Amino acid sequence: MASETLLARITDYASRPDPYPLYAELRAAGPVVRQADDSYLIGTYHEVAALLHDPRMSVDPRTRGEVTHKPPFLRLDDPEHHRLRTLAMRPFGPPHSPGRVDAMRDEIDRLTKDLVASFEAGRQIDVVDDFAYPLPVTVICRLLGVPHEDEPLFRAWSDALVTAADVRPGQDTTEADKAGDQARIEMGGYLVGLAEQRRGSPGDDMLSAFVNEPDPELRLTQEELAETAVLLLIAGHETTVNLITNGVLTLLRQPEHLDHLRRDPGLLPRAVEELLRYEPPVHMRERIPHSDIDVAGTTIPEGASVVLALASGSRDPMRFHEPDRFDPTRPDNQHLGFGSGIHLCYGGPLARIEAQAALGALLPHLGAARLVQDPPPYRQNAMLRGPRHLPVQL
């Protein structure tokens, strides 16, 4: 019976500070564990990775009739997903060549330095509110073309959307789902209105690029523009906030690694990859099989909810040596922090740049810093897991 309640226990807020013992219990229970609500929970690396690449697994909530509107491309299957993802990526620049993200490197470095310049010795800061949130929000707003003075508008929208996007046992519509739908409509309307102001008089931003696309075959419909812009704005900062905050928390808990990185900042890129494995910003993803599918000897029926525990897979001892040990020099680190397959997080390159810049700028200030509260208060969301606040005494 204990294995049948694993998803409920993992998503219980009491487990937020440390879900990893439950992931170990999940892996021990078998590659596929049926839950009391008839969903299926999978937490072993090879099975999770295989299903992320399996075309029989759908991400579209309309498969079960959960929504009637067209979701963003993150929740669409090919070929629709491929078309919209390709169109959304065009303003980032051509594949395999410098584009908007690479052009932002110097500005990201400047933004991080400006933020830490206000940190005085002996001061207590909240890593989330004072640093990890402002940095990626400012960056994605610059990329999209959202005016700085409008940034506070979408924090409430973003919180509502993230809450609604959580993985929860059962499929009943909740008040959080309704609030998320309303936030999506309001934010989409705001972003489309902003884009329309640039029609015919574009600026150097992605909303301008979307509405001034000269090729009719490559233009987004208004509905597609709304969903894509909302997705970019949310995905462009939510996971990065968690990545940076989890990184600071991990390093302050393990001062020997903090000291190592301060002495050798060239290790930062590998350290960020290890953070994506060890304390990832995204813990779970849901899939829905188009047809009955066999996974490690278990038949999962068509239409069932399949929850892939990415964070569990990235700590699977069958794939990683000493997986519960943080090792910023770890070789062969093919983690699941950004997912895999056709839905691999395409904002990954931007998140890596931001996390490396953020941790690099913070390292000189963290040598004598201490956590004011450990564990810190966490956000409600179990899928996008990270501290809501991280008070640190410099």
Helix content: 40-55%
* Average residue pLDDT: 91
Distance between the termini: 46 Å
Q: Radius of gyration over alpha carbons?
A: 21 Å
Order of strands across the main sheet: 1-2-8-5-3
* SSE order: HHEEHEHHHEHHHHHHHHHEEEEHHEE
Please outline the major beta sheet. 5 strands, mixed
What ranges have pLDDT less than 50 throughout 5 or more consecutive residues? Answer: none
Q: Tell me the total number of β-strands.
A: 10
Give the CA-based shape: globular
**Number of helices, where a helix is a run of at least 4 consecutive DSSP H or I residues:** 17
Oligomer: single chain
- Percent in strands: 5-15%
Structural class: alpha+beta
Q: Which terms would index this structure?
A:
globular; 394 residues; three-stranded antiparallel beta sheet; 17 helices; alpha+beta
